[in-house]
Design a protein that fits this description.
The complex is a heterodimer of chains A (112) and B (115). Chain A has 112 residues and is mainly beta. Helix content of chain A is 0%, strand content 58%. Chain A contains no helices and eleven strands. Chain B has no helices and eleven strands. In chain B, the strands form two sheets. In chain B, strands 2, 4, 5, 6, 9, 10 and 11 form a seven-stranded mixed β-sheet that branches. The chains are: A mainly beta (112), B mainly beta (115). The A-B interface holds A 1, 6, 31-32, 34, 36, 42-46, 49, 51, 89, 91, 93, 95-105 and B 4, 31, 33, 35, 40-45, 48, 50, 55-56, 58-59, 91, 100-101, 103-104, 106-109.
Chain lengths: 112, 115
């Protein structure tokens, strides 16, 4: 089955700096890669996703890149703000399987 | 409802007792998923429902865990003879019908503590 590795497990940045979180996946049939943000005590919420037919997607301060050959994808957050502090999860979905396989999460702390 | 609703929000139970966790998905969402999140860990897949059937129950950790869904809506996750290692947040999610690879909307979760 699919295996998703996520790094780093924790990340601390200064407000205004950029943050990058990386994930690798094992199943070359995966074609959908969402990122979820989970604030303390709250539910995970989708912030951005990418499908395998594109290499990059942007939405304001966040972007995701996908390298299908290397089987890795990354989340980029620019001009970080304290409200970006949360746990971020990457996920992958192999073709033909409905349920997402999640990474272990990255705790991002943005220092004001 | 406006979102995925789970109950109870918190449950403390004694080791060996059975518990039932409820999930009410977004109206019209035919796909429903249960995940488990242990402290500081990622989301571990348990079971997926499409309508009332469960085509993927590969993540259930033991035969003490079972789930059902009725009327294509509410789902119940049952844990029998609870153990301390069952302590975790149990999250339910649903997604709309149609093509694969659509957003999964999560509930707030049920925090289960086995003492």
């Amino acid at each position: 089955g699919e295996n998703v590795e996520q790094h780093p497990s924790t990340l601390s940045v200064q407000e205004g700096d950029s943050a990058v979180i990386k994930c690798t996946y094992s199943d070359s049939a995966s074609n959908y890669f969402p990122w979820y943000k989970q604030e303390l005590g709250k539910r995970p919420q989708l912030i951005i996703d990418i499908r395998s037919n594109v290499g990059e997607k942007k939405d304001q301060r966040i972007a995701v890149t996908l390298n299908k050959t290397a089987k890795h994808f990354s989340l980029h957050i620019t001009e970080t703000q304290p409200e970006d502090s949360a746990v971020y999860f990457c996920a992958a979905n192999p073709t033909g399987r409905r349920a997402l396989t999640f990474g272990s999460g990255t705790r991002l702390q943005v220092q004001p | 409802g406006a979102g995925v609703s789970q109950s109870p929000s918190n449950k403390v139970t004694e080791k060996g007792k059975d518990v039932e966790l409820r999930c009410d998905p977004i109206s019209g969402h035919t796909a429903l998923y249960w995940y488990r999140q242990s402290l500081g860990q990622g989301l571990e897949f348990l079971i997926y429902f499409q309508g009332n059937s469960a085509p993927d129950k590969s993540g259930l950790p033991s035969d003490r865990f079972s789930a059902e869904r009725t009327g294509g809506s509410v789902s119940t996750l049952t844990i029998q003879r609870t153990q301390q290692e069952d302590s975790a947040v149990y999250l339910c999610a649903s997604s709309r019908p149609g093509a694969l690879n659509t957003e999964a909307f999560f509930g707030q979760g049920t925090r289960l503590t086995v003492v």
